[in-house]
Amino acid sequence: MNKQKILIGLALLLFVCVVVWAVRTVPQAPPPQSIETESKTMTYDNDTIKEEKNGKTVWELTSETMTMDADTRDVTMENLTGKFYDEEGRVVTLTAKQGHYDAKSKDITIEEDVDVKTSDGAALSCDKLLWSADESKLTADGHAYIKHEDMEATADKIESTNAFHHFKAIGHAHIVKGVKDAGAEGAGAK
Q1: What residue ranges in the chain does DSSP mark as E strands?
Q2: C-alpha distances in Å from residue 43, one per residue of 75, 76, 78, 99, 185
Q3: Which residues have C-beta within 8 Å of that of residue 44, sequence separation ≥ 6?
Q4: Which residues contact 137 (CB under 8 A, 6 or more apart)?
Q5: Pairing mode, if any, of strands 168-170 and 75-85?
Q6: N or C terminus of the chain: which is more exposed, having fewer CB within 10 Å?
Q7: pLDDT digits (tens, 9 = 90+) for 56-111
Q8: CA end-to-end span of the chain, whole Å?
């Protein structure tokens, strides 16, 4: 019976050792992995985007570098040129350092060294040029300056729905008629 007690004790001791070993050697759960939500982008060199409506081109923008977010379809442009066309045939031609196209709203923001010319002879400069797709409106925003024939205007904003043939000057607006051509390079121009 003594032998039996010793064997039961050894079996019990062996069982306790196995349980302790099993508890101590259980692997720890790996730390939760952070889910990265990096957006995927595609970059194009010397590419053009444009919008057409009823078979006519509304606008087109070409840039040295164009980066598109694959998820949102938004486009960022660097060193761009572009054209906006109105229904009466006038064309706004522009150059700028940067631009952004919002795919959801179809609005465009163009900024940094914005220089604009129209097919009927107007010249415009501003800090930022905005295209509102819903209103088919161009807005020269920030230090806006326009010169056409013998008229020049400065304002915080200059808005137009017809390629700046007619426009609305908003905020600190100053319009001068009878300006000679020499004034185009002088006061008010950037």
Answers
A1: 41-53, 56-69, 75-85, 91-101, 108-118, 123-132, 137-148, 151-160, 168-170, 174-177
A2: 9, 9, 11, 14, 37
A3: 65, 66, 67, 68
A4: 131, 159, 160, 161
A5: unpaired
A6: N
A7: 999 999 999 999 999 999 999 999 999 999 888 899 999 999 999 999 999 999 99
A8: 109
